[in-house]
Amino acid sequence: MWRQALLEVDELKDGLGRGLDPGSRELVACLRLLGLKTIMSCEGHAERETEGPYVMFRSLEAKPLEAEYWKLVAEGKRKSDEAKQLRKTAYELNLRERRKLTPLLNEFYENRATSYDNRIIISTFDLGGSRLRCQSAEEYRLAGKSDREAFLRAHQQEFGDFTAFLMTHLKLPSSAP
User: Fold this and answer.
1) Per-residue DSSP letter, 12
2) Is 128 helix (H, G, I), strand (E, B) or coil?
3) Coil, strand, or helix at residue 111?
4) Mind listing the pLDDT tens digit for each residue in 17-68?
5) How do 38-42 and 54-57 pair as beta strands?
6) CA pair distance 27, 32, nearest whole angstrom
7) Do 156 and 44 form a contact (C-beta atoms < 8 A)?
8) CA 50 → CA 13, 41, 84, 87, 139, distances in Å?
9) What are residue 119's phi and psi, to 5 degrees?
10) What region does 48 belong to: left with phi over 0, alpha with psi -120 to 50, or beta?
11) What is the C-alpha separation between 177 and 173, in angstroms, rounded?
12) H or E element: which one contains 92?
């Protein structure tokens, strides 16, 4: 199961044909084993304003509804009843997808002492899609290079610890095969 999940993640490519960042690999595999449809990830890069590590995911069921919604928007029908219903349904489906992860974040932080800035949260993008990131990720934009490096190290550590937690929860081997 774990080996297959990693092999599948290794096959993922972005629009430029690049694979996942190595620092995102195991977390993305864990999230996929939990049934989440990941669509984008980054391990974070101090030399760029990436806002640190993140993983984005959304509901597979919402995807065709979102496409139809955006088609209506392009036709100038954003306020139509059909567009409103598509938006509402897609948003709700994406929020239901998020619920797969929320209890695990609650469990992860139940007895964990970490700064508020470093806590992993789920933020919303687009029509309810979810972005797993650290609380202070947006502050990367305000930080100088050395501060970005410190943010990045702390956030990568938090993501690494959450990945280890998920691997334990899923009863997976403690290191990649």
Assistant:
1) -
2) coil
3) coil
4) 888 999 999 999 999 999 999 999 999 887 766 778 999 999 999 999 999 9
5) antiparallel
6) 9
7) yes
8) 18, 10, 32, 28, 11
9) -65, 140
10) beta
11) 8
12) helix 81-98
CA dihedral 13, 121, 104, 62 (to 10 degrees): -50
Which residue intervals of 99-144 are DSSP H helices?
102-109
What is the side-by-side strand order in the sheet with 38-42?
A: 38-42, 54-57, 129-134, 120-125
Token couple for 2: 């774990």
Please tell me whether residue 169 adopts helix, strand or coil conformation.
Answer: helix
Q: What is the pTM of this model?
A: 0.91
Q: How far apart are CA 53 and CA 152, in angstroms?
A: 8
Tokens 């695990």 locate to: 104
| Inter-residue contact 136 to 117 (CB < 8 Å) | yes
pLDDT tens over the chain, length 177 residues: 899 999 999 999 877 788 899 999 999 999 999 999 999 999 988 776 677 899 999 999 999 999 999 999 999 999 999 999 999 999 999 999 999 999 999 999 999 999 999 999 999 998 889 999 999 888 877 877 778 888 889 999 999 999 999 999 999 987 654
